[in-house]
Amino acid sequence: MASTFLSSIGQQFEGLKIDGDQVWLRPPRASDYEGWHQVRSDSRAFLVPWEPTWPSDVLTRASFRRRLKRYARDVRDDAGYSFFVFRRGDGALVGGVNLSHVHRGVSQSCSMGYWMGENYARQGLMTDAVQAVVAFCFEVLGIHRIEAACVPENVPSRDLLRKIGFKEEGYARKYLRINGSWQDHLLFGWLSTDRGPYDR
User: Fold this and answer.
1) Residues 156-168, buried b or exposed e (16+ Cβ, 10 A)?
2) What is the pLDDT of residue 12?
């Protein structure tokens, strides 16, 4: 399945939909701007402590268009894959999951990041979304290793990764520049040979 997907990756990814139990995911589209703007602006204080510094124009339509172009370039280069997360029932855009730093060859690895709107947090939605994307990584992209990292103080993110099957592998000092300063991070990994993303 992975080779078929990768052979025509642009067209296949554009129409992709990943189903979870409580959510479904698909690549971002221009028509998502209003929903994305709403959830990000409503959640600004909630998200800022855990993300890179927000540029002054980050929520503008022009910035969103640039973001979509970057996403499309990453897909074309097999370098990254971004998804928006939608809640079943009302179709509300509730967050996003991003795969970046895709490496092929002897590595076959990628990094995973995610964000969730404040009003939708702690309802199991991101747990469901991340599990679905983990399965996509292993079953469709043919990834061998998924890496994730979080600031130690971000207890919900740390607990999510541990809960679904990521293994804590280390502690990296001043690993990423978050909210304007270099922050230590906990490092996690999940191998395709570990237990499946839906196993308990």
Assistant:
1) ebbebbeebbbee
2) 74
Residue 200 has pLDDT above 60, yes or no: no
The answer to whether 112 and 147 have CB atoms below 8 angstroms apart is: yes
- In this structure, which amino acid lies at residue 85? V
Q: Starting from the edge strand earliest in sequence, which strands make up the sheet with 93-103, in order? A: 18-19, 23-26, 81-87, 93-103, 109-116, 145-150, 181-191, 167-178
Bigger pLDDT: 7 vs 29:
29
> Is the pTM of the predicted complex or chain greater than 0.90?
yes
Token pair 């130690």 is found at: 152
Contact between residue 99 and residue 133 where contact means Cβ atoms under 8 Å apart:
yes
Separation CA 101–CA 78 (nearest Å): 9
